[in-house]
Amino acid sequence: MTTKKHMSEVPMIQRVTAYLAILVGYFFYCYNFVIIDYVRPYIVDAYDGINLADTAQFYTWQSVGALIGALSCAWVASNFGKKSTLIVITALNGGATIINMMFTDYAMWAAMRFVIGISLGGYFTVAVSLMIGLFTPTVRGKLTAFASSMFSVALMAMGAYAAFISSIDAPWQSLMWVGGIPPLVAAALMIFILPSDKKVIAYGEEEQAEAEASNTPAKKGSWGEMLSAPYRKLTITCLLLAGLNFYGYQFFSGFVTTYLKEVRQFDGATIGIIFSISAFGSLFGAWVWGAIADKYGRKVNAFGFILAGVMASVFFVAPSDLMIGSLNMLAILGLIYNFGLSASAVWGGYFSELFPAHLRSFGAALFHGGRIIGMWAPMVLVFIQERSDLATAMWGSPIVWIVAGLLWLSLPETLKGGIFDKSKKAETAKA
Which segments does the entry list as coiled coil (predicted)? Predict the structure, then answer.
């Protein structure tokens, strides 16, 4: 049997390059997740058989695919290797996006968005578990949070590129091509750049490697084990927490532009300014919370959710005409709200750290697993809105965020020496 070497023996330049390759794929995971929203009006104009209601269902099919991809790719990576799984789903992301453009009817568009969704959910699951194994735990928070910030970067890049192709009268399909070709290139590069998990022991997987070295059969994770007695509570708590994240997001962010237009009676320009400034909080917030998680522990970030809940409450009662300098106060409150929410940028790594090495991919998959709960959020909000009004229904957001923050605090701390690390307190007591 070939002796494995530890990740610390892999040159730092190769590990950094591997992280950057995964990051490129992560950018296009984010890009292709939201591209359907951007091209929706173009699809309606271009294809006679597809209307606006149909395009809304494309996102649903994509989300269902993401859920299946996250849950299934965790098992695939555990049994066939993380590197090979990541390469295949990265190529699937790009290839399916290109094939998607060959069709003009609803059924095939829905089918392709479903397939693309599988690759997207799978990418998050496997990329995160590979990413955190490249470096020591003291930098994982920053690395996973920076990767999560690619969502904001992808939105900004998409907007800038869309403006560019519009200025030169290029076809809207150019946006889709950008989501298709680079992932194929990234997948090819990963073959040569990513350390093989069959030959290298990742950080945090030392115990599993020792068991293999002593001829103990290598553990293969399963969802049955994730729901077994030792891990059941952790699994269900993470799923519930991820589900509440989708609920809180939909109850505020999913309808905030409608709220600003119909309830606050703002014009389009004001709504755009408030929305864009608020969104900026997510970008720099991910970096800040990543650093906080590495220094003080993953559970400290739970206070970001509580902060978001407080800011949402203030947002709903703040007067519409209150200005701070040249900015409407709602823009500032929205910025702080999104800053708080970005505390969840560390979840991919944190959920993985909560479980043993052979269950890491399954832990990362719990983020998208939360869609089992969260996919009903828009319907719940509309149900409440129909029996009251939009402003009342949206008050569910601060309630959800505060409950989610408290639930997060009930989970174990995974960073040794963190503020909420119980082992540190036990050692202090013994001393």
Answer: none
Query: Where do the H-state alpha helices sit in 47-81?
Result: 52-80
Could you give the maximum distance between any two Cα atoms of the chain, in Å? 75
Q: What is the DSSP letter of 323?
A: E
Classify each residue of 187-216 as buried b or exposed e, where b means 16 or more C-beta atoms within 10 Å of its C-beta. bebbeebbbebeebbbbbbeebbeebeeee
For residue 412, give the nearest of 358, 348, 355 by alpha carbon: 355
Q: How far apart are CA 81 and CA 70, in angstroms?
A: 15
| pLDDT tens by residue, 318-361 | 998 888 888 889 989 999 999 999 999 888 889 989 998 888 88
Res 202: pLDDT:
87
Asked if 181 and 319 count as a contact pair (C-beta separation under 8 A), the reply is no
Angle at 277 between CA 272 and CA 280, to 5 degrees: 130
Residue 47 CA, chain-centre distance (Å), reads: 31
Helices (H) and strands (E) in the chain, counts: 21, 4
Mean pLDDT score of the chain: 86
CA separation for the pair 104, 262 (Å, rounded): 35
**Residue percentage of the chain with pLDDT more than 70:** 94
Question: What 3-state class would DSSP assign to 200?
Answer: strand
74/115: higher pLDDT = 115
More confident residue, 179 or 373: 179
Taking alpha carbons only, the member of 408, 349, 409, 308 closest to residue 148 is 349
For residues 229-265, b (16+ Cβ closer than 10 Å) or e, as one string?
Answer: eebeebbebbbbbbbbbbbbbbbbbbbbeebbeeebe
With vertex at residue 57, the alpha carbon angle to CA 55 and CA 61, rounded to the nearest 5 degrees, is: 120
Q: Helices (DSSP H) in 81-216: which residue ranges? A: 82-100, 106-131, 137-148, 150-167, 173-193, 206-213
Which of 302, 307, 379, 389 lies closest to 340 in space, CA to CA?
Answer: 307
Give dist(CA 253, CA 251) in Å, integer.
6
Would you say 164 and 370 are in contact if contact means Cβ atoms under 8 Å apart? no
Whole-number Å distance between alpha carbons of 249 and 137: 29
pLDDT digits 0-9 by tens, 92-108: 999 999 999 888 899 99
Residue 405: CB atoms within 10 Å: 23
Distance CA 217, CA 22 (A): 30
Checking if the pLDDT of 5 tops 70, the result is: yes
What residue has token string 């530890």?
A: 6
